[in-house]
Each structure stands twice: as C-alpha cells, then as structure tokens.
C-alpha cells in the first residue's frame, strides 16, 4: 500500500495526497475505522513533506472522510459509500426520435473521416496560425482590470451590454435601420438559428432556401419538424424565376438565405437580386432568416448591404451574425438582430436554455473589438485568404476537369463535375492517396449534387494546396475514364 | 456637416473616422457620387491628423464604399443601400405555444421586481466580492501560453479533453464507478438538463420530483411536455412513504432529485434515505436525474456520497454537475456524467444546439482547478458562507415567527409560516419597506406553498441581514394580526 503515488509537477502536492487517499477510501481499499499511517510515516512512504500530509489529513477530516482520536491517530470514517441496489437500463430504448435523428444526422460521427497527415479540404474554419493571441490577451487583461467581478458573475440573457451596443452600431454602419429592432447574444450561429426555428409556429412546415444550402441549418430545420425546400442557384444567387414559381405554388413558413459567400457555393447574391428577392418575399408575406455568414471576407468588389439593411423599416428579416468563422470559433458568440417583439420571446427561450452566453467571452470579444483589433486582424486575414483563394482558383482551373466552379471569396470553393461523375467515387480514390474533401451531396435538400464537391482552403498550406488539388484532378480524370 | 464628430479616448481614431463616414453614407447624408472633402480639409474639420483621414479613406475604399479619381479626389460609391419594398408582420402571431410558454414562465420578466438600494434575499448566486480574480487571471495566462491557438479554435462537442479528464477523476473521488459511463460538458446546469429532458421519450409524461423543487427545472420540464409530480419533503429529504405510494400508483418517465442543499428547502438527503430512495426507484425501474447543486458547500457533518456513487455499476442515474453556484457563474460550464450510450446521443444533440461549450471558458476553468485554486477558494468561501448561514439562522429564529425552517447549509434558508399567512402578502408589505425575498409558491408543483418563502443570504451584508430579517419578521407579525 502507498507505493503507487505518482504526483505531477504543476499541481499542489497536498491536493494530490488528499485525492490519492480519497480514492483509496471511496474505493474501499482503506476500510471504515481502519487506522491511517501517522503523518510522519506517510510522509516517508509518499516522499512528501510532513506538512503536506498534515494539510491533506486536515482537509479530509473537514470533508468528513476521516476522523481523529486524540493520542491514537486518524481513522477512516464509517460514512464511506455503500453501493446499493440499482439497475441497468438500455438508454437507447429511452430516447426519443428527435435524439435519434440528431445522432443520425451528426456529420462528425457519420461524415468523412480522415487521418492525421492527410491533406484535408473539409474545413472552412479559420487558420489558427493567423489568430491574434497577443491582442486577445491584452483585451482580456484590459477588461478584467476594468470589471473582473462582473465578468465572472451572472449576466443578462439578452447579452453583455457593451457588446450589444457595439454590435448595434456595427449593424447600423451596415445600413440597418434599428427602429423597432433589438439584439440578442447567442452561443454562435447554431444556437441562434435553433432558437428561432424552435420558436416559430409550424402551420406550414415547409421552409424555402437555396439549394444547396448550409448542412447544419438543414439539420436544425429537420430536427425542429420543418422540411427545407431548396431553390437552384445561379451565378449571382438564388434562381429568381424558380423562386417565384415555388412561392406561388406553395405556402412557406419562412425562408432561410445565405446571401454572402453562400455555403457551400461561395456565391455572393448581387445587389439587384437582393432587391428582387426582398420584393418577392414581401409579396408572398414570407419572412426571411438571413445568415450573415462570412460577410466580412470580401476580397474585392463593391460594398453589398445585407438584406436586413435593404428591408429598411420592414421587420420581416431576422439577421444572424457571428465572427466565429473569421475571428475565434472557440469562443462561441453570435447575435440575432430582429424585430423587438420577436427578440422578447427569444430572450425567454435563451434564458430557459443556457441562461446567457458566457459573460467572459462576450466581454473579452467586446474589448478586442473596441480596441480596434478586429479591423487590423481582418486586413491581415483578408490578404492571406485572398492569396490562398487565388491559388486555389488557379489550381482548380488547371488540374480539375470541371463543369462549373463558384466562389466569390470566403474560405471555400464549390465545384460541379460532369453529371456522370460521382464525387463520392472521386473521394474514395482521393482518400487512398491521402486527400479528403466534402462531397457536395450533403448540402442538397433534394438528394441531388452527387457530382459536386466543396473545397475549404483556409487551413491548407500552399504546398498541400497544389499537391492536393492535383491529386483530386487525377482522381476525377480516372473516374471519367472509368465511366 | 462634419461638426458632430465626437471621438472616444480608447479606440483607434481612424476607425472612428471611418465609422463616422460610413454611417453618413449608409444613412444617405452623403449621397452617391458626392465628393468628399480632401484628406487635408477633413483632418482640419474633424481635428484629427491627416494620416488618420488617409487611413480611414483607404479602408472605406477597400470596403467599396468610396472611390478615388486620380487628381480629383474621393467620391461616395453608387453601391449605397437602396431600401426596397418590405413588409411588417406581427411576430406574436408567428411564434408557437412553446415560445409563448417560455415567455410566460420567465421569472426575470414576471417575477419579483426590486429596485437598487433594497435589501434583496432573492439571489442564491455567489458573492462576487469573494471571486478569486488574481488566480483566475493567472490561470488564463498559464493556459493561453500553453496552447492559445487551441483555445480560440473549434473544439469537440463532448468537451475540452483536459477538463473532461479532470472532472472524471473528480467524480471518481466522490466514489463514482466510472465503468460504462461517460462525460459531456455543457453550458451550465440549464443546458444539460434541457438537453437530457428533450432527448427522453415521452411515453409517460409524468416526472417525479421533490415538492417544492427547483423552479428552472420545473419550467424546462413543462416546456418539454413533461408534468412534474412533487412528493413532500421531510427533514432528511423526500417523504419515503409518499414516494412509495406514488411509484406504485402511477408510471413515471424519470425522477428529478436534488439530494444536497435542495433548492429551495436547503435540505440534505441523509445517507440512509439515499439508499432507500435508490432501492425504491430501482424496484420501479425509474431512472434518476441527480442535480449535484451546491454539493460542495458543506459546512459541517460527514461526507455524503452522491446518488450516482451509491448506484455503483448501475446506469440509471444521470448526474448533473456545475461549479457555477460556487465559483464563477459568468462562465457557463457544467457537465453530465451518465451511461455512455446516453452520452453518445447527447453529444449529437449538443453539436446540433451550440456545437460545443466555449473552449476558452473550459480551458481557463481547467487550469484554475488544476492549479489547486478551487480547494483554496472553497475553504475561504465555506468559512464566509458558514458565518453568514449561522447569522441568518439566528436572525430568523429570533425575528420571524415561523413554523418550520430548513437549510443544512448552502446559500439559502427555507421558511414555512403558519398556514393562514400568505408569503406574497408579507412580501408586499416588505417591498414597501425596501426588503424583498422569493415567495415559496413558485417552487411548488401543485400550487401549494403560499405560506413559504426562500431567503438567499450569499450577497447580503451582515448589517443588511439583521435589518432585513427583522423587517420581514415585523411584516409577518403584521400579517398575523390582520388574519
């Protein structure tokens, strides 16, 4: 006994001694009323100072795990755990269909697997090498010195006030008329979208969206009992004629649109089309959830206003924003800007779900933004990603026999191969050569897109980019020969 | 024009100039093709350096908001926002019953209001004056220097690995047999409970729990279509005979129990009762959600093992843990320890809801725990709260004519007045004297408890405590005279 104590370096030793003894007591290795070694003995046995053992014993006594008899020593308390009758059940039989669906649609579990060392075009998250750690640290230290206690205590469901104020100004600068609108901070886009969708009545279970569309959004819609109906994309956004036809033929509960750097096609909806789309939805009285995805990652071209700005004083557009895809995905902060009546309900839903988003994260993000670091970071990120984007475009054009390629910026390109080529066949071949990408079919509402694929380039080095796209091109050619 | 520019001190001026101009452009104060002042002119007008204006103009041009004609100057782009037809809808007609319920049951909106300066016994959150800011800062700096990039990028839905490992050991030290179990990190108790409840099949919509019980839990149960059935409490926990009767008469989907420092009664379920309760639920094959609420806030007495430890190798107990009520509520981190099959489903639900809990929060909390700060903090907090607890108990006994008082520790006491006294009447009188507390009826599953109240004392000073409880006592006496 007492020979297997192996303390680690950077944690107080008395805590480690305490935990070690606790484990022996709760596991029954040390029995009730068993005498413990004297503090002197144990310090020799464990090679720690006697004071360390004294502190550990005192803590264990305070926690009621041991007791001391004057002049006799320390003993294990009787209160150790007695395991009682319990039973085993099959939890898979206890869970409901929604939980089952969530598991089945979980791409991280059933999607493309890849091993370390492979060239992966599956990610569209920012490159962590670009992260601006020193300014982030600065922002943390600034904010904690201003109001540390506030950051660590409960906050408001709607959000951390300075951040809310900042984002309202930020949206106003994009041209949004804030009259009658309000903001709610969320744990990223995902929570925001899920909350909105869960709050809307399901009179008409159909939701109109682009086809293809964001996979996670489609998953959340389905988990909430809605069926996405996708409308084909053109080079400048959703196909207007097909949209008009769908709206005239069927009732929709709401629309879900990604007007900028659309995921997965990378298309930016043209200003003219934005107007036309808004007019059309207004005519059919269908509200819009606008996904502000990567709106900031413009590499060239003119300023394009979000739909919610174009809607002026109208209240039918709900805007979902997030800096996750550009700044720091690890801190989960997004926001909903919408009609204040709607926000009022969403605030209560937020409170019932997660009380509020981490005040610490919100406050540090606010300070980072306030300090003006975002603008500087964005400049750097834009120039790095622009270069990567251009390299990716060149490589795809040169190496992949493609039918169509879209992507006006952002962190990914979308490729359409010849109709008779299956992207999953290409992927199989690529996988054997150590290259992976995302097959496009997962983004389609109608099981189409078997001949499409998405290439995320943000986390791929130049060298890997050339090598990887070349290999994809070779696999495509091989598949073409085999057809 | 240009006379209302008011820069703040601690934000780069060029960004403020840029945003100022942006606002004038998006609001249409500066019109398309209008010539902007030269950089020299504007620098004079705004009282900023010329370089500042040059940088601001360059940024605006990059964003496509202005354009430059060589030798002529800078002009506003045509791409400014054209507001198009949109429409207004009544969002209150669009939302569903669940959202409406969430709003109606939102205590922050419809609960007790109180003004600044009042003595408030409504909070059971920790006192922020106790927060251990310097060690928290240290933990942040330690962790960010070890793996800053990782903290800021996407993590895993299940949680940040070092924290998961730490918590598994932590639970093992409480005597839990980890065989076949797994852990999932959540955004506090609230998200964890909501996820579990949303995942369970609703064959039997009834859930058995203590009466009174945690208000938020009751709200979440109802929002998910479950009906809580409360069983009366005795001095050592839930009434065993009544529990037995209820279990024999009705089918229950699961149980929700708060065995330690029960909210709102503050009762700790005795070790003997824990065994009996577990055996009873095993007999009737009803799984248990165990709320580990404030388990650490023991001021005296012997060690009491959580139900999940007493259940040994059984898999019918789901344990929900959180340090929020003791450490830092502002960073929303909690955990679920349960059967690994169940955790597997919950992981997918977590991914579909919030992707994952803030990696930053998890990592800093991990480092704080690892550094051994929690133990030290807990000692300090326990001694402060113990003193407050004892003072509160003394005051209540002295000043309030009560029938029963419970609370074995924790941060609150629960008081039962004579049956014919209405706590809300007492509250009304107290409010006029500047004192507020939580009327107990909100915690009851059966609309009972009109004569009960909860006093949270963690954030009340000694002086306020004596004064406040005295005033409550006077109000109770007044109400007694009036009956």
UniProtKB/TrEMBL annotation, chains A, B:
It comes from the Bacteria. Coiled coil: none annotated. InterPro entries: Aminotransferase_I/II_large, HTH_trans_reg/aminotransferase, PyrdxlP-dep_Trfase, PyrdxlP-dep_Trfase_major, PyrdxlP-dep_Trfase_small, Tscrpt_reg_HTH_GntR, WH-like_DNA-bd_sf, WH_DNA-bd_sf. GO terms for molecular function: DNA binding; DNA-binding transcription factor activity; pyridoxal phosphate binding; transaminase activity. The keyword ATP-binding does not apply. Its cofactor is pyridoxal 5'-phosphate. This is DNA-binding transcriptional regulator, MocR family, contains an aminotransferase domain. SUPFAM superfamilies: PLP-dependent transferases (SSF53383), Winged helix' DNA-binding domain (SSF46785). In the C-terminal section; belongs to the class-I pyridoxal-phosphate-dependent aminotransferase family. Keywords: Aminotransferase, DNA-binding, Pyridoxal phosphate, Transcription, Transcription regulation, Transferase. SMART domains: HTH_GNTR. Residues 11-79 form the HTH gntR-type domain.
